[in-house]
Amino acid sequence: MEPQPGGNSTNFSHSFLMRPNVRFETQHKGEQVILVVRRHPLTQLSWIINSIFLVIISFFLSFFIFPTFFEARFSSVFFLFAVFFTFSYIWINFLLWYFTVGIVTNERIIDLDFFNVLYKEFTATTISQVSEITTNIAGFFGSIFHYGDVFIKTQGFQQNIEFELVPRPSEVVRIINQLMGRR
User: Fold this and answer.
1) At what angle do helices 72-99 and 45-60 cross, to 10 degrees?
2) Angstrom distance (rounded) from CA 106 to CA 128
3) What is the average pLDDT across 41-47?
4) 54 shares a domain with 6
5) Do 111 and 127 fall within a single domain?
6) Can the keyword Transmembrane be found in this entry's annotation (predicted)?
7) Residues 105 and 177 in one domain
8) 77, 94, 111 - which closes a domain
């Protein structure tokens, strides 16, 4: 997705964007993006905390433990390797979060899931094929910070769409229901 100038609504985390001016690869002519959602930023805390822990451990090992057993150059090489590994871990996790999105347009609902850097899954359905929408807010943090899952079931044997751990799932359902009512 590439940003276009003059978006209507954005937020700090870019996890719930109303009417953003973005374009995506398979967008039809005249198709307007109504909503873009991605996982709530709070759900990313596990890999962020792991990254901080890795930096602290590698610093501690490189400058306090290894110098007593190895030469200084081995400690430096280990530290550089650990930093490279940690920042690669951070970069990959950020990309997976940023590019795994749910898109609601005036014509379709699209779920783009990145499972790793080399594998993505694209699922789309038209608004008219949606038969049922369910939201699920579970757990302490989901209730407090208002994030959860949105399940979109389609008619027939088509694949169902899931927006996992997105902010304001009730509002996502409301927007899709409004679009279904217009059809």
Assistant:
1) 170
2) 11
3) 95
4) no
5) yes
6) yes
7) yes
8) 94
Supply the pTM of this predicted model.
Answer: 0.85
Gap between the Cα atoms of 78 and 39, Å rounded: 34
Residue 3: band (very low, low, confident or very high) from pLDDT cuts 50, 70, 90: very low
Number of compact structural domains in the chain = 2
DSSP the chain: -EE-SS-S---TT-SEEES--EE-TTPPTT--EEEEE---GGGGHHHHHHHHHHHHHHHHIIIIIHHHHS-HHHHHHHHHHHHHHHHHHHHHHHHHHHH-EEEEESSEEEEEEEEETTEEEEEEEEGGGEEEEEEE--HHHHHHHTEEEEEEEESTTPPPEEEEEEE-HHHHHHHHHHHHHH-
Tokens in use for 118?
Answer: 């080399």
**What local confidence, expressed as pLDDT, does residue 94 receive?**
94
Instruction: State phi, psi for 159 to the nearest 5 degrees.
Output: -70, 140
Q: Do residues 167 and 112 share a domain? A: yes
Lowest mean pLDDT among 34-38, 85-89, 112-116: 112-116
Q: Are residues 18 and 75 in the same domain?
A: no
Q: Place 8 in a pLDDT band, splitting at 50, 70 and 90.
A: low
